Amino acid sequence: MSYKLLGVGTNAKTIKGDGSEYLTAILYMTPWKVMVEGKAFNSCPMAEQASCIDACLYTAGRGAFNNVQAARMRKTEWFYRDRVGFMEQLVQDIRKFETYCVKRGIKPCVRLNGTTDIRWENIRPFTEDIDRLGDNIFEMFPSVQFYDYTKISNRKTKDIFNYHLTWSYSGANVQYADKLQDALDNGMNAAVVFRKEYKLPQWRGINVTDGDKDDLRFLDPNNSIVALYAKGKAKKDTTGFVVDI
In sequence order, which ranges of 117-215 are alpha helices (DSSP H)? Predict the structure, then answer.
């Protein structure tokens, strides 16, 4: 099936998790700062502090191709230029995807921040003059499992039962790295990108789980370090975002 905003089966890690139980659809847009109609917008507000711009997974896999980046830019421009129209299309895509999964007995999963870090919990699906089924996209689709990575340690999503967030660690900035405990206190696990495969049971006294076996972060044990391995430009990162062991 094709969608105007979502991609299904285009990410190697989600393919690993797309079996008989789960199927993941991802929204990819342009991260960091973009100019739309003369105005600057930032879809990854913590990227500079975390020093992950150069090592961003935006360049990994298919994201390295210019046509893929152009498509992501078009979506980003639509999001900032016509929020109502964008959200209406996103709702249509998710509804179509949910119907597809339900007919096949598969749990529909959606990642809205495939390459961004937008606070979707604060975005209303429609304007006030249009009937709404919920105050945010998660309330509209209670049967869909939403999940994402984030670098914002204080996002208020703990009470959204169908939205799971994993905080992305970076050691490039001491102030940012110190937010690890804040993220754990907010009910998030922490993803750490290692240069090489991490085989120890704990990191900094916290249990480690393999994050590369699949992308289904909502299945990870609570209070865990999710070990990931450097990909794309991250393989050559020297900022401290990628952790050496």
Answer: 137-140, 174-177, 180-185
Cα 29 to the chain's mean position, in Å?
A: 11
In three-state secondary structure terms, 91 is helix
Picking from 192, 194, 199, the residue whose alpha carbon sits closest to that of residue 229 is 194
Instruction: Pull the structure tokens for residue 227.
Output: 């070990």
pLDDT tens digits, 87-117: 999 999 999 999 999 999 999 999 999 999 9
Distance, in Å, from the CA atom of 74 to the CA atom of 72, rounded to the nearest integer, reads: 5
Polymer length in residues for the chain: 245
For the beta carbon of residue 161, count every other beta carbon within 10 angstroms.
Answer: 10
173-189 pLDDT, tens digit each? 899 999 999 999 999 99
Cβ neighbours for 62, distance < 8 A, ≥ 6 positions apart? 10, 68
pTM, entire model: 0.86
Q: Which of 8-22, 117-131, 158-172 has the lowest mean pLDDT?
A: 8-22
| HEC secondary structure over 1-57 | CCCCCEEECCCHHHHHHCCCCEEEEEECCCCCEEEECCEEEECCCCHHHHCCCCCCH
For residues 193 and 238, the answer to whether their CB atoms sit within 8 Å is no
Work out the angle between the directed axes of helices 83-103 and 66-81 (0-180°, nearest 10). 120
Nearest to 171 by CA among 61, 245, 63: 245
What single DSSP character describes residue 243? Answer: B
Question: Structural domain boundaries of the chain?
Answer: 6-236
Closest to 90 in 3D by CA, of 74, 77, 75: 75
